[in-house]
Amino acid sequence: MENAANQGLNTVIRTPVYSKFTQWLSANLIATSYNKILVVRECVLSIMTEQQMRARGRYVIGPDGSPLTVADLPPRDTKRWVIRRKAEVVAAVRGGLLSMEEACERYTLTVDEFLSWQRSIDRHGLPGLRATRVQEYRD
Prior knowledge:
The chain is mainly α. It has 2 domains: 2-54; 60-137, Winged helix-like DNA-binding domain superfamily/Winged helix DNA-binding domain (Arc Repressor Mutant, subunit A). It contains 7 helices and 2 strands, in the order H-H-H-E-E-H-H-H-H. It has helices spanning 2-14, 19-28, 34-54, 83-94, 100-106, 111-124, 134-137, and strands at residues 60-61, 67-68. It has a two-stranded antiparallel sheet. A hairpin with a 5-residue loop joins strand 1 and strand 2 (67-68). Residues 8-17 have low confidence and may be disordered.
């Protein structure tokens, strides 16, 4: 059970977060129980949302290098998630165009699903977002 908790903790720690959270994490995180992992995840979301609300702009640079606005994002009712659409949503959140909470609500995504998109981009680039050959890119 503790090994599973450590894997969950590693998932949370590897996600891109702000230095404020990193300082809090190193100062306060000692135990790795499942409940504490959930608390850490909530802290990540609240800090990221707070920071992104301050940094919100009119556009961000999309995955193809062109400006990306809210109007350019995939439609709310998107069912077919191709690489480009996933990458646009991740870029919008990272650039402060949307908060992670807004993106998850807008596209009916779970936080874990969105974070997996971010991890895939960080580790494997855009090909990591492919639905085919997922085993090649899975950790």
